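Q: Given only this backbone (347 positions), what sequence would you predict?
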């Protein structure tokens, strides 16, 4: 896997996974997308001195060391993580932010402990409603705002992992060593890296990364009144061919991935006539909750010309990928069918 990542900014580091590397069910750690608001720690924190604080609306505030986490029952979960702004640059109407194409997403098998097991050690009080995660990465701006995000207690107790392992390796430095939150099926912003503190609150955490960003709002709307970005939408992407590829007449294998966050992908269909008719693609490969499905569609293209492929996923809650994505000011959640089409030539 010597495919290089497409770097959008180096400080902070924002880079996307190349299309080819999205073909495997597991996205290799070396090319897994990077999304940062702050500076990645220069070296791994010393595990002998690192502590995770659990405080706020708990019966007893506690600090856990790394060995205590390792001694707890290990949980393993697959999860496709996508940045809220993935595919932003493919929107018909431009939106500001990192110009992701399709590579702000990846699938991993993550090892760690369930957040509920950790919270239960401290004891959850009756008034607790939200769980805030604080990373220790060094803020870049003058305002020095630490990356802190909260999620509802229900999500924290049902399906949130604290991951110390990524695809069978210790969590890599740039992905949050030694520990990150992973709200399964939710966007990356809900998965805080370099954890040092988890605080139980009566209300959602208030701060820049909760109120000004990761919300869906219109041009003239106040950001804090927009809906918070949580679960992934229903979406399919095409991972082969590359855009504008050229083939000889004959069979072409169209490959892709499809994901739907907390829902299961049930079908992927392909259209070669701009959505007039759809044909089923074949789903293959591992099938795990919260993880994407791989799909393929093999077809003979016997006549020279330019062909455009559209793909459309449907999930277990009945959501169908829309022909065009809804626009919002920060360009979040682009899952439009047309925006993700691929054209190639037969010569
Ligand atoms: N501490 C910390 N956690 C963070 C961020 C960050 O800047 N700092 N970025 C978030 C965002 S927006 C995303 S999409 C994911 C990206 O995770 P990755 O770099 O491991 O792919 O981490 C999230 N967790
Ligand atoms: Mo993100």
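A: Predicted residues:
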């Amino acid at each position: 896997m010597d495919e290089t990542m497409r770097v959008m900014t180096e400080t902070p580091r924002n880079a996307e996974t190349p299309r080819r590397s999205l073909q495997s069910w597991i996205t290799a750690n070396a090319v897994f997308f990077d999304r940062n608001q702050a500076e990645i720690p220069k070296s791994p924190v010393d595990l002998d001195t690192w502590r995770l604080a659990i405080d706020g609306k708990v019966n007893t505030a506690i600090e856990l060391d790394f060995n205590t986490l390792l001694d707890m029952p290990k949980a393993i979960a697959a999860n496709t993580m996508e940045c809220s702004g993935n595919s932003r640059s493919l929107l018909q109407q431009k939106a500001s932010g990192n110009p992701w194409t399709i590579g702000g997403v990846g699938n991993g098998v993550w090892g760690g402990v369930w957040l509920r097991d950790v919270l239960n050690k401290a004891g959850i009080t009756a008034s607790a409603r939200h769980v805030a995660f604080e990373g220790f990465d060094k803020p870049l701006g003058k305002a020095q705002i630490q990356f802190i995000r909260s999620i509802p207690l229900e999500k924290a107790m049902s399906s949130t992992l604290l991951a110390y392992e990524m695809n069978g390796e210790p969590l890599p430095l740039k992905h949050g060593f030694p520990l990150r939150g992973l709200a399964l099926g939710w966007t990356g912003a809900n998965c805080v890296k370099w954890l040092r503190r988890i605080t139980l609150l009566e209300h959602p955490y208030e701060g820049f990364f909760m109120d000004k960003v990761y919300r869906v709002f219109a041009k003239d709307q106040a950001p804090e009144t927009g809906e918070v970005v949580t679960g992934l939408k229903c979406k399919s992407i095409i991972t082969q061919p590359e855009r504008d590829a050229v083939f000889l007449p004959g069979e072409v294998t169209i490959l892709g991935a499809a994901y739907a966050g907390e829902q299961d992908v049930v079908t992927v269909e392909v259209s070669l006539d701009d959505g007039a008719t759809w044909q089923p693609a074949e789903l293959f490969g591992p099938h795990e909750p919260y993880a994407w499905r791989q799909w393929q569609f093999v077809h003979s293209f016997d006549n020279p010309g330019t062909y455009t492929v559209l793909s459309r996923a449907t999930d277990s809650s009945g959501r169908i990928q829309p022909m065009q994505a809804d626009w919002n000011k920060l360009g979040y959640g682009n899952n439009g069918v047309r925006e993700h089409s691929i054209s190639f030539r037969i010569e």
